[in-house]
Design brief:
Elements (H helix, E strand, L loop, with lengths): L2 E5 L4 H12 L3 E6 L2 H15 L3 E5 L5 H11 L8 E4 L14 H29 L3 E5 L9 H21 L5 E5 L8 H4 L15 H14 L3 E2 L3 H12 L2 H7 L10
This protein binds NADP nicotinamide-adenine-dinucleotide phosphate.
NADP nicotinamide-adenine-dinucleotide phosphate (NAP) binds next to helix 1 and helix 6.
Keywords: Oxidoreductase
InterPro entries: NAD(P)-bd_dom_sf, SDR_fam
Organism: Flaviflexus equikiangi
Length: 256
């Protein structure tokens, strides 16, 4: 895939995707906010794999951060073959009584930054006639768990449309919709992950490998687990009233 740019590469799914890509012989650009964590991980990847690992520290909740990443994806001197828009977080609050600032950060990171980065990547990749984009959505794109679900539904629908737009140019777009994964995600959101049975969690290496495999095969949507693929089928067919009652806002088991 040449050089891959991965956002949210210091933890969880993004970190594992970066690991697998470097292990397969790809150079990387790692993106997140925490510069020390980025540098530390870049050193480890260089030592283990011998690949060239670049660090790009950026806050994707800001216009400046999103545009810096977008500019890097479109570089002609150091071309990017794969862009992975993975950075994201749970809101950890209710809409009523919650902080509007946090709501805006969430939509900026999980929708606006993806739009800005994909606009840049799509135009450059279409011009030169190759490249791939992997966007990380979620199973919650099919539920009604507040604004987080809405952002993930946007990522899913946007990616499907972009895949069609870019197909004639030889550029692929894949959207991955994982279910529960053990990462820092729940801890950062103060959600008690022990409320769900172990069976409900997909190992992070499987999420990464199945998502990357879908990119290689040019698949548009991947649900990287048979259990959640079945759940997705159910969610598409179930009456929305039922979906809202079992997977609506406030059903995330947060500690307050
Ligand atoms: N874990 C799950 O159960 C699950 C399920 C379905 C989908 N997902 C999705 O998978 C993606 C990865 O989540 P994860 O579970 O791997 O979470 P995680 O372990 O908390 O990792 C999140 C990553 O995103 C980065 N990030 C967060 N805010 C950022 C910002 N403003 N600017 C730049 N980078 C930022 C973090 O680094 P810094 O803090 O250093 O910036 C970190 O590297 C997210 O989009 C999430 O919504 C997760």
């Amino acid at each position: 895939m040449g050089t891959a740019l991965v956002t949210g590469a210091t933890s969880g799914i993004g970190k594992e995707i970066a690991w697998q890509l470097a292990g397969e012989g790809n150079d990387l650009v790692l993106v997140a906010r925490n510069t020390a964590a980025l540098e530390d991980y870049a050193d480890r990847l260089r030592n283990f794999t011998g690949q060239s690992i670049e660090v790009l520290s950026a806050d994707l909740a800001t216009e400046e951060g999103a545009r810096a990443v977008a500019d890097r994806t479109a570089s002609r001197e150091k071309p990017i073959g794969l862009v992975v828009n993975n950075a994201g977080f749970g809101l950890g609050q209710d809409f009523i009584g919650g902080s509007l600032e946090r709501e805006l950060q969430a939509i900026d990171v999980m929708a606006r930054a993806i739009l800005i980065i994909c606009h840049s990547a799509a135009n450059e990749f279409a011009r030169r006639g190759y490249g791939a984009i992997l966007n990380v959505s979620s199973m919650t794109s099919l539920t009604a768990q507040g604004t987080y679900s809405a952002h993930k539904a946007w990522v899913r629908t946007f990616s499907e449309g972009l895949a069609e737009t870019l197909k004639p140019y030889g550029v692929s777009v894949t959207v991955s919709c994982p279910g529960l994964v053990h990462t820092e995600f729940h801890e950062r959101t103060q959600v008690d992950a022990s409320q769900w049975p172990d069976l409900a969690f997909i190992p992070v290496d499987k999420v990464a490998s199945r998502s990357l495999d879908a990119v290689r095969r040019g698949r548009v949507i991947v649900t990287p687990s048979p259990l959640y693929a079945a759940a997705a089928g159910f969610l598409r067919l179930a009456p929305r009233r039922l979906v809202r009652s079992v997977a609506g806002p406030g059903r995330s088991g947060r500690h307050d």
